[in-house]
Amino acid sequence: MENENKQNAEEVHKEEAKEISSIEEAKEVVKSLREQNEQMKANLLRAEELEAVRMVSGKSAAGQSPPEAKEETPQEYKERIMAGG
Q1: If you ran DSSP here, which 8-state letter would residue 58 be given?
Q2: Per residue in 21-36, is it b (16+ CB within 10 Å) or e — as a string?
Q3: Cα three-residue angle 2-14-18, rounded to 5 degrees
Q4: With contact defined as beta carbons under 8 Å apart, do 3 and 11 qualify?
Q5: Structural domain boundaries of the chain?
Q6: pLDDT range class, residue 39, cuts 50, 70, 90
Q7: Cα(72)–Cα(67) distance, rounded to whole angstroms?
Q8: Residue 54: how many CB atoms within 10 A of its CB?
Q9: Cα–Cα distance, 40 to 45 (Å, whole number)
Q10: How high is the mean pLDDT of the chain?
């Protein structure tokens, strides 16, 4: 009887230890995720700043149209074909 009580007590102690270690592990994961989240926020702010600078400097693709394709004249076509291109 006394041996069974010791075994039960040991099992309860092991389960409590597992719960504590699980809680500690979860806390570490949460801490890591918060740090990563802060880093992502900083990266996003930096990207927004760079895009704003690009827009102000006129190097952004916004509002720009692609250059119009020049239509080849018959003479240019003949010369290109005769040159082997």
Answers
A1: T
A2: eeeeeeeeeeeeeeee
A3: 165
A4: no
A5: 2-82
A6: very high
A7: 15
A8: 13
A9: 9
A10: 83
- Alpha-carbon distance of 53 to 55, in angstroms, equals 5
Residue 28 · residue 34 · CB < 8 Å: no
pTM of the entire predicted model? 0.46
Between 12 and 68, the more confident residue is: 68
Helix runs in the chain, H state only: 2-57, 74-82
- Quote the tokens at residue 51: 């895009």
8 A C-beta contact, residue 72 and residue 80: yes
What percentage of the chain carries pLDDT values higher than 90? Answer: 40
